[in-house]
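Interim report, section 4.2 (structural modelling).
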Amino acid sequence: MPMKASNSLFDPTLVRPALIHSFNKLNPIGLWENPVMLVTAIGAALCSIVFFQDLFTGHFSGFNLQITLWLWFTVLFSNFAEALAEGRGKAQAESLKKSRTQTPARRLRDGREESIPAPSLQRGDIVVCETGDVIPADGEVIEGIATVDEAAITGESAPVIRESGGDRSAVTGGTRVISDRIVIRITSEAGNTFLDRMIAMVEGARRQKTPNEIALTILLVGMTAVFVLAVFTLPAFAHYSENASGHPGSSDLRLTVLVSLLVCLIPTTIGGLLSAIGISGIDRLIRRNVLATSGRAVEAAGDIDILLLDKTGTITLGNRMATDFLPAPGVTAERLADAAQLASLADETPEGRSIAVLAKEKYKLRGREFSALQAQFVPFTAQTRMSGVDIAANGSQPARSIRKGAAESMKLHVKLMGMQYPESVDQLVENVARLGGTPLVVADGGEVLGVIQLKDVVKGGIKERFAQLRKMGIRTVMITGDNALTAAAIATESGVDDFMAQATPEDKLCRIREEQAKGRLVAMAGDGTNDAPALAQADVGVAMNTGTQAAREAGNMVDLDSNPTKLIEIVEIGKQLLMTRGALTTFSIANDVAKYFAILPAMFLGLYSIDEKPGPLAALNIMHLGSPQSAILSAVAFNALIIIALIPLALRGVKYRPLGAAKILQRNLFLYGLGGIIVPFAGIKLLDVIINILHLA
Amino acid sequence: MKSLDWIQLSFYFGALLAFTPLLGGWMARIYAGEKHFLQPPLGWLENLLYRYAGCNPRQEMDWWHFCKALLWFNGIGFAIVFVLQMLQSKLPFNPQSMPNLSWTLALNTAVSFVTNTDWQNYSGEATMSYLTQMLGLTVQNFLSAATGMGVLVAMARGLSRKSGHTVGNFWADTVRSILYILLPLSLVLSVVLVAQGVVQTFTPYAVAISPEGHAQQIPLGPAASQIAIAQLGTNGGGFFGVNSAHPFANPTPLTNFLEMLSILLLPSALVNTYGRLVGSTRQGWAILAAMYLLFIAGLALALWAEYQPNPLMPGLANMEGKETRIGITDSVLWATATTDASNGSVNCMHDSLSPLAGMVAMGNMMLGEVVFGGVGSGLYGMLMYVLLAVFMAGLMVGRSPEYLGKRVEKAEVICAMAATLAPFAVLLILAATAVTTSAGLSGLNNAGPHGLSEILYAYASMSNNNGSAFAGLNGNTPFYNLTGAFAMMVGRFAVIIPALAIAGSMAPKRIAPSSSGTFPTDGLLFVLMLAGVVIIISGLTHFPALTLGPIIEHLLMQQGRMF
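Predicted structure of the assembly:
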């Protein structure tokens, strides 16, 4: 992200506006979205009315005032949590909005250039951008190559290359061309650009509820409804009991007390933090530079059963490195290395460079100055599928033509030269392939010198990562264009569960459909246009920001860092989101046990009592709270303060550990279920002691 | 407790656990339409029934058609029972010339038997003709039990099918439940009961001359046949007013054991059947384990409370309201079993249980009749809690909740919440109405918190379709007849309809293969969690009311004050 957001949860620059928003959010229309808090607010309003009614008739009740305040605080704390979670997103949205361009766009029409305001660009318009221009809207480069500064979107200051054709053709509105000139076809209309969607996403995270959030809200509404019934039928049973005991009025059934009991019982903790949890989940994604099109996609990420990962860049470092020279019979290793080095001197690909480096390290062959050789570099083309060097005859040295390439194309090359392709080289080639390497055959003229072994280097720590995923119940499938032998070797080395060799885009799509038909949820990462169908079909499709516009449109998430490994983190964030909701719901409901033991004996202390002594239900006061009023007050205060106390947990999320589901459940039930029963006993007792010391009740 | 008591308890649990897989497996074959040993002797009858009714047992219904068939079937059943009671004085098999019933009592009774509640605001021997007992009440004992079993089987199908929208054929399930399960079992049981001395006769009441020279009427009737199905089908409606405390209904230790065993026999075995129908017996055993856990916990508390001497009568265990020939252990075991299963038959007077044992009986019903519960209905009620537990567990492990590989989503949560909470809501609202209106209070015979317990018990029993009563309440008033009928309707159909809707919404969902990322619903952890969810949801709802009833009564008794 453009701004390196502070990692402190209670950053003062975020807290201050959040405090103000907490009050703005008391608006009943907004509260309607959150039924649990709506009930709390109605309760608080009723208590306020009671308090002021008493005040106007000349009875000031400190108890009623404190209860009323705590009830309002409960609502405000919940609003504060939400506002705080939104705060970071808002700040990000502000800075994004600034990069939304208002400068005129240079539209090309019938070969002429005209200046029009960027917002009035239409899909399909052609614009031109030169050094210093801000790209007016999302589009596809159709002509030229340029370096672009995308810091406004990705926060990455190093410029990136954007060029027509290939997989790096997408440009984003609001980014700046640093050098050269490109012609862009606009692919999105104003108001619907990538930047707009990003802003909407960070700003509006609260608006859309995810399926699980909706289901959970229903559960909470159900619990709230039944507690409303349980509390408001209680006076009927109490009146009966008072009459039966012969002492009418011996129980405390004031509205304030009933509302206190109700608010303590309804799941305010989770109700108050629910939307903050959702927003912060999206925020965590954004902080990892991943943009989701919807909260639903984030939630789905937690349910993934299968990850399809591209080999290159995800599992391996991305570049194959030369690791060995294997000479043909009758050829010395030095000769092979020398030829290989010559052929690679001008080869600027990482593979080519690694060959030169290996020759230097292994055979002390120092790099020669290419220009001094009067040599001409023959680059790799799709037709010849080989590269090399042609060296003109120089004195005693005859002209040489060195080539390196894949076995199949070299075989053809040698045959064309009218020479024999030795069978032993075939053997070498197969050996290399079996070990997961890529063989490059080197020939000098028509003579085959041997084979260069290129190997994929598997990323450090990736095997452990996959083992973790397996524990989480997620299988990984490696996708590669390599042949089955090579793929199998790398699969073994990296520890993936399965692999797809020589995979075409259609294969990927088929595989995804197949897994989905078996009831599995599939995630994949991709960048190319040919990945678009698979990205769209996958339940979670993460497009790389460097990829094509088609890929970015097809996926439901975009990784601004273009790092496919991030899929794993996305899964964890998805799981954390659900776990945090589940943990706090359990905690919230478990809390009720202690609250009953605080409030019920306080309400019914006098019931069936004889001679002003405490009645039988005093036995339920197992916390030995000071007085009925302090008991109720401390329960209500605990109920409000626990929301504040749990804000950090809600915003950071419950820590996810890659354990089996049974283990996680056991752990969370213990922490939040059992903990949820015990903590309030301690908390209410503590508050009661404080309240009695301060003589607040 | 003496060693004999322990031996009895272990016999009881041993027999129950032994029959569960045997009976469970056999029922699974019947519902799956596989071959079984009763097919050769009875299969022709099944086909004949289908042919006369013009229905095709292989034609599958979607959940709404299934539900409509069920509602019509129960509606017509209700009308027949209602009319029989309103006209019984003109109808045959009425040797005692019983008059017609008041319409409110007839309504209450008809609803009660159709909903498998068998709440009785009357005393059978003083109110009902033999015809009403047999054609009305006994027939409904079969039909209401079969209805519950059909709903359960439909739910099992919905949870285990991989595609399609259908959940089975209501008529086929009903016919098979009655023909192959309920009729044969109750035939065997009633023959044994008759052999042990339970009455089964159409002769008018016998007249004996007491030593003082007074003529004394001794009620008789076709009791054994009704008791057999009342016990097996978790109906529990007594032929005689005092139910199985009556020597003609429960004459010997063997009848006591068998009748008690029959209370839980089918509810327990059906859980096993369910496991088989969804393709994993372990799933069945897990739910059953949670049920046994809650059953044994309640039993232990109740036994402790009953053996605890009352401070006012030191050294004496509580024998009030119990038959000396049955004793404390068997009375408490029966009381716990009959309230866990929504049976409601009794062999002691629950009104006289000590406050805590009374609370166990009441609490068992307040759990929603899901600890075994009624035949079929207990398990589909428990499955609502299972879905809620799965939902919570799913969130806690960070994976969208799944049960048996199927997603639990908004629709299922709505249905499960509605089905769980509707009976609770009716209980609280009606009980609160009863204690604040003179119509409600006029039925009370007891003072103090015990009076409140009686009213709470009555509505807990009706709204959860149990049918047992704290005998102290006079329920035959228009107020109790009508509110009770409403509670029983809600308790039955506000659970059945969501249960079938869940079956319908789950049926087409794809089944995700399980992995280590999905938590197992057949392990110990889930058993404990399920039991916890049941206790917490029901406990939090009812705790305030219970505080003012049995809890305060217990505390007062400890102080030496009784009511």
